[in-house]
Amino acid sequence: MTQKPLQTKAYDYIKDLILKDAFAYDTIYSETKISKEIGVSRTPMRDALHRLAQERYIDIIPSKGFCIHQMTKQDIIETFQIRSAIEGYCTVQIAKDHKEDRSQKLFRELDYIMEKQRKILETTQDISVFVEYDNQFHIEIVSSLNNRTFHELFGSYLFQIKRLAVLSLGHPGRMQETIEEHSAILNAMKCGNLAEIYSVTMKHMETPKGLNLSDFCYS
């Protein structure tokens, strides 16, 4: 069995801890200490940290270490711009090819995800679980085009997408609205409705962006 390169080992280790919320936002973490925990040297650790910084998981503090990235207003705007560009294109292409077997398979996956989301709305209204299905809904759409660049670029924003979704879903009624917007996107794709698919996709981008920006302005 081939071992992971040390840079990848360090990257995966730290990213996993971040996704599990193991790091506090107001703390600077020692590069040296974590290197010892993982058992890697300075060079692969620094390479891993630079990659995590590029993907906006962390901010590097020179001569001190790193901290979890504090999202800015520009981060919010850029995240939704990237999402709008990628997902807007993807949903249009899926709608164009709505009769293809791969599209029909996608629609079944999205129907299943939406069933799970509706169940959460009707029962626990657990935002953290809802967000996991929300992410999966969008990942399935982007992945369906088999465009490696889209997949990688979208993946590099997933952490911020998830953080922003958690915040927007904290607004009263947003969980219900999200399901309605997902339903509009899915129905337009299923019907091949090219007159509506882009506008309903953009609505699903602009509504949470507005909530996130309003939260940022009043925080």
UniProtKB/TrEMBL annotation:
Keywords: DNA-binding, Transcription, Transcription regulation
Positions of the HTH gntR-type domain: 4-71
Residue stretches in coiled coil: none
PANTHER family: GLUCONATE OPERON TRANSCRIPTIONAL REPRESSOR (PTHR43537:SF24), TRANSCRIPTIONAL REGULATOR, GNTR FAMILY (PTHR43537)
Protein's name according to its UniProt entry: GntR family transcriptional regulator
Native source organism of the sequence: Blautia hominis
